[in-house]
Amino acid sequence: MKKIVSALLAIAILLMGCAFAESLPELPAIEKVVFEKGAYEPLPLKGSAPYAINESAFDADALRYHDDTLDIQVHKLRAFDTPLFIAYVQIADATQFRTEQARKYPSEATARVPVIAKKVNAPFAVNADWFIFHNAGVVYRKGELLRNRVNSEYDGLFVDMNGDFHILAPLTDEGVAALPADILHSFCFGPALVVDGQIWDNSDREVTYKQRMAIGQLDELTYVLVCSDGPEEKNSIGLSIPQMAEIMHALGVRHAYNLDGGQSTYMYFNGAKVNGQKAGKGRAVGDIIYFASAVPAE
Asked: Disulfide check for 222: which of 4, 41, 188, 218 has CB 3.0–4.6 Å away?
């Protein structure tokens, strides 16, 4: 009997491995846009994005937003037997790459992503790293240093005032000291997925399959955000960290970083949740990443 059970278990593991070994489908390409340099003023770093959302900038199928300073292209597909959601974001100025907390730090208050997004006039937003959930890391938000507790158990993502990514894997005092002086935002979660165009080695981590959220930089002021459903969703296995890294690498990123996932995973666009099969799902979080227009409201 034990031999039969062992044989069945081996077959199950083999079949599971085959499912996870599925190759990537053809991924959607970004449609590059060019913004007129200096046509609009940078946004103030503090406070919410000052301009209301231009509803006419959304296309008819609600998968594209475009104005003179902001372009967002959303794609839905399947990879690794899991629903996948890809958003390309292009901005005219680094100040359009923004963050917001449910309440001002050091409050540990939380709110659902759409609640925070609507408060700050965000046409597009995702959950960030929920840094208030722990007390480690180096955290900048809107150019202000909120926390300086270097911890090598974390990888860090730093976004400078030009909108460029810097990943420290792991987070060390020496690495932080070598960063540019003008950091706009930083995140303490991880792990790193792609660094300098190469998939980062996370082979020492336990392999689990979950809802995931990742962010990558493709080029100057050009980003891609990717999220997946998880095993609790219908017809979904979820992604592992290596699979998310493979996806980000295939998209052509310079750098990519894993954000908070699980029930926190939330991609918000045009007033609705993009990912997940139940619109109301998603836990309250401490903070979001969002992108705002620099075109003044008419």
From this structure: 218
